[in-house]
Design a protein that fits this description.
The protein is α+β, with helices and mostly antiparallel strands. The chain has two domains: 7-69 and 175-333, ApbE-like domains (T-fold); 77-163, T-fold (Orthogonal Bundle). The protein is 31% helix and 25% strand. Strands 2-3-7-8-11-16-17-18 form an eight-stranded antiparallel beta sheet, covered by helices on one side.
Length: 341
């Protein structure tokens, strides 16, 4: 999810442009490795002691979520569910169930363009990027046969998860970082830190604006074309933004580039360059929407975004497409603050 797109079509490189601190509060920043990436937190606090405690609580919250949602960790709750919930309902923790529930809702709304059950296919493409060889077509077909969001069943009343067949593998990589950013921001607020941002690579969540400012200033730029017409600066608060593209995670074979983002219908990495930036009320939404829009493509993706309250998107292929609500330069997005679950 967090990769940026490449070359001529690159867009939406999110950078912090800085804000002046008010006299009574000071800007603090910390970075730690979590969820397979570097997580950066910026916050305004009364002093170093308050900031230190806030950073520790927020990073610990992200680590806790990684233990529940990671498909890399053999003993994560997600992987335990994959092993034990075959043809029988198994109770899930609140965090995992919340993410799976949001994933299934998004899958239904996008006709499967977002699919949390794609783990078997995603793992083949991960290995392909290591070996620099396309996945074997027979293995892809077999893996795809163990995927499909309709094979995942959730019971909200009992908070249980059930999988239709053995060998299924859930992968929350397209939504988990946004959820974690939301949760970390909520922890900071509980500790009295309301002016903060959490950035899990390309997935960012924002609290109140920096003191004396209208919002956190975020640059949305072309990496390789600084003169491009879609360069702009946004001011965001109490919102989230996610960018999805193939600049960092991809496989180049015979002149073709295959993204780490998989089309659930074909089981192939996206091969038409596309970069999507989504602004939404919460990180869990922005993260998942960005992945879904990447698969849907510009026209269908923007049509989907237009139906989502409080969401907007910028899509870059060989052209630039904006949703009707996409902010103008220096615009200010306001939305209810995300809550920790």
């Amino acid at each position: 999810m967090s990769s940026k797109s490449r070359g001529f079509l690159a867009a939406a490189c999110l950078g912090f442009l800085g804000n002046a601190a008010a006299a009574d509060r000071h800007l603090f920043e910390a970075v730690e490795p979590h969820m397979g990436t570097l997580v950066r937190i910026k916050l305004y606090a009364d002093g170093a002691l308050q900031a230190k405690g806030a950073f520790r609580a927020a990073f610990d919250r992200i680590a806790q979520l990684d233990d529940a949602l990671s498909d890399y960790k053999p003993e994560s709750e997600l992987n335990r569910i994959c092993r034990t919930a075959v043809a029988r309902p198994v109770e899930a923790g609140a965090e995992l169930f919340r993410v799976l529930e949001a994933s299934q809702k998004l899958a239904a709304e996008t006709d499967g363009a977002f699919d949390v059950t794609l783990g078997p296919v995603i793992r083949l493409w991960r290995q392909a990027r290591i070996t620099n060889r396309l996945p074997d077509s027979a293995l892809l077909r077999e893996a795809a046969g163990r995927c499909g969001y309709r094979k995942l069943h959730l019971d909200p009343a009992k908070r249980t998860v059930m999988l239709d067949q053995a060998g299924m593998q859930l992968d929350a990589g397209g939504i988990a970082k946004g959820y974690a950013a939301d949760a970390a921001l909520s922890i900071l607020e509980q500790l009295g830190i309301r002016s903060a941002l959490v950035a899990a690579s390309g997935d960012l969540a924002f609290g109140d604006p920096p003191p004396g400012q209208r919002g956190w200033r975020i640059g949305v730029d072309s990496i390789d074309r600084p003169e491009a017409a879609f360069n702009r600066v946004l001011e965001l608060s109490n919102a989230a933004v996610s960018t999805s593209g193939d600049r960092e995670q991809h496989l180049d074979i015979d002149g073709a580039r295959y993204s780490h983002i998989i089309d659930p219908i074909t089981a192939m990495g996206l091969s038409s360059p596309i970069t999507v930036t989504v602004i939404a009320r919460h990180g869990i939404d922005a993260d998942g929407f960005a992945t879904a829009v990447s698969v849907l493509g510009p026209e269908r993706g923007i049509a989907f975004i237009e139906k989502q309250a409080g969401a907007s998107a910028l899509v870059v292929t060989d052209r630039v497409v904006e949703s009707a609500r996409w902010p103008a330069p220096m615009s200010h997005a306001r939305a209810p603050r995300a809550k920790s679950h």
